[in-house]
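Example 3.2
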Amino acid sequence: MSDAADRDRDPEFAFELRVCRWAERAWHPDGPRPAFVARQLGTRQRRWDTVVVEVDPEAFAARRALSTDGFDSDLLRVVRHAPAEWAWYRDAIPEPDFPWRHVVPAVHRAAGLGLVEKRRGSRNRVEYRRTAPYPDWVERVVAIENKPNLDASAARALADQLDHDVSRALADEVWVATEVTGRRVEPALLEDLPVEVGILGVDGDSAEVLWHPSSLSPDPDDARRRLVLAERAYDRGWRNYVDTMRPDCRQFELDRRGRALVPRCAAKDCYQSQRECAHSCPSFEPEPPAWRMNGWPIEGGPGKGVRRILEARRERERDRAERGSENA
């Protein structure tokens, strides 16, 4: 395929953003649920394109009251097991698979953030207690792999990863999202994918369930791993791609694709990827100073304006998850 023809198609990154935006609105065939969406998250062994975290609205509100930032694995260990009454941290926290001395800085960090209280107890031991209990806010975790062109070679490449997802069962459901072709039988249904994996056919703003997934049974011992994943999703969301792109470039645009805002490069006339829109891009042109002054309605110019727009949308989706599905 020529470069010109390739640029007429959305790159996988743009398709990924469209799937994330659709998932925010109504990812599940039963309709909107209290949930929020993140992208490019996983474990050391596996990374997923899109992650949907269903939440209990009341418990999620309690989680947001603790902090508007996500907890890393160390902070999560400390806050989740913080006792109601003063206790030595070694009595409160299950023994980690690394030296205890690495836990103490997390206790001090949690106290500095107001998540717990700490003191020196008997024998000069570090004791702490919670300021509020860590709620059981995660209902389900759903993983979506995005392959706009799910041909036979792409399906073969995915098969082992999806087999791992099903057997490992870290997520409650696993899906593959692909662009519909309009054929009588979608090619994705003919590929050799695990039967437990659902298939979503994406067409513009909408998507249809081509194959329903099986409900998996996560191991209770994975509760901590699932919470770590959910905390990272809560912290990052999926609109943080501008952190690795150049919205301060005069060529950077947010183009509306249905209900999604997708980064577009005016210089290259294409929907670029994070790799393409980097500091080394030869087409980079700084915003003119006038854009940052009187010519732009948001203080700081278009670059900062893009960040604020995406951050505001991220917070709006958090509010929606907290309110619950009846107000979605």
